[in-house]
Design a protein that fits this description.
Helices cover 15% and strands 44% of the residues. The protein is built from three helices and eleven strands; from the N terminus they run ββββαββαββαβββ. The chain has helices spanning 47-51, 83-90, 105-111; strands at 2-3, 14-15, 21-31, 37-46, 59-66, 72-77, 94-97, 101-102, 117-118, 121-128, 131-135. Strands 4-3-5-6-11-10-7 form a seven-stranded antiparallel sheet. Strand 10 (121-128) and strand 11 form a beta hairpin. 19% of the residues are buried. Mean pLDDT is 85; it is low at 1-17.
């Protein structure tokens, strides 16, 4: 099945896989303990909720997904990133989580994962064309 998302560069065709649950969201990249500076996941918003907020240079549209193995993943389009943010967080081989991130209950419930924590650590970045994928 193909799904087209009307927001920004996420309008690219995305092939959905069987048994993969997804949510379109917006993430502020950074470290919660450093007021969203640094590397990691600082905050997450629904697309609707993010529309009510002031623009933030580190808030990027993403696709959250849970793969068939129950692992949380994140997919983003490089075109949605400023050059500065790309160079700071996504240019290397790994995405670094400086602090643990707890997936908010709303997102965990919608993705069917219960209480989900992303531990601090390094996570391999997978580049597929203009898309960057991270599996936590």
């Amino acid at each position: 099945m193909l799904k087209i998302h009307p927001k920004g560069n996420l309008a690219a065709k995305i092939r959905l896989l069987r048994n993969v649950r997804i949510l379109f969201s917006e993430v502020v990249f950074g470290t919660p303990g450093k007021r969203c500076e640094g590397s990691g996941l600082c905050r997450i918003y629904t697309v609707t909720g993010a529309k009510r907020l002031d623009p933030h240079p580190r808030r990027i549209p993403v696709i959250l997904l849970v793969n068939p193995k129950g692992k949380l993943g994140l997919r983003l389009n490089k075109n949605d990133l400023s050059q500065e943010l790309y160079n700071e967080l996504f240019q290397g081989e790994f995405f670094i989580m400086e602090e643990q991130f707890g997936l908010p209950a709303y997102f965990a419930r919608k993705l069917g994962v219960g209480n989900y924590k992303v531990p601090a650590g390094e996570y391999l970045l997978h580049a597929r064309g203009n898309w960057l994928d991270i599996v936590f």
